[in-house]
Write a structure and sequence with these properties.
Helix content is 62%, strand content 8%. By secondary structure, the chain is mainly alpha-helical. The chain has a single domain, classed as Arc Repressor Mutant, subunit A. The protein is globular and about 55 Å long.
Length: 151
């Protein structure tokens, strides 16, 4: 395959469309950044309605990179929105949970963000299209890509 033909390869077109869609959807949520950076919102949203999560569970559930999770937790901890402590089950495990202040911010922002996201996506894709897209994206994200050889 020649250099020029790579840009027309289906895999490249999929990646470009995925990244453009991500940029568009994140752009729709720019209003959240007036309150706090999106990785911090993601942590608050992930911890909301839980009793707290182990840091490795949090890293698996969040959109940000696992390497970024500790930095985000420290920033939120400094603002009094989360607290971290050792697990009662294992002194090696760290549990992260929302503080009362973090719970209030979650209760304020998350429902608004969820309603807005649902409205945006429902306005573009049918429910069947959303279900199909979710399944396809989950196949890409399931970790099999991580097992492929690196360039």
């Amino acid at each position: 395959m020649g250099v020029r033909s790579y840009k027309d390869a289906p895999g490249i077109r999929v990646l470009r469309a995925l990244l453009r869609a991500e940029r568009a959807l994140l752009g729709c949520h720019a209003w959240i950044e007036e309150q706090l950076p999106l990785p911090e919102f993601d942590m608050i949203a992930t911890l909301g309605n839980t009793q707290g999560l182990r840091m490795h569970e949090l890293a698996q559930r969040m959109i940000t990179s696992p390497a970024n999770v500790t930095r985000v937790a420290r920033a939120l901890e400094a603002r009094g929105l989360v607290e971290r402590g050792r697990s009662a089950d294992s002194g090696r495990e760290v549990i992260c949970r929302l503080t009362a202040k973090g719970e209030r911010l979650f209760a304020e922002l998350y429902p608004k963000a969820a309603r807005y996201t649902i409205a945006v996506v429902d306005g573009i894709l049918s429910r069947d299209e959303q279900a199909t897209l979710e399944k396809l994206l989950e196949r890409l994200a399931d970790g099999s890509v991580e097992r492929l050889p690196r360039a």
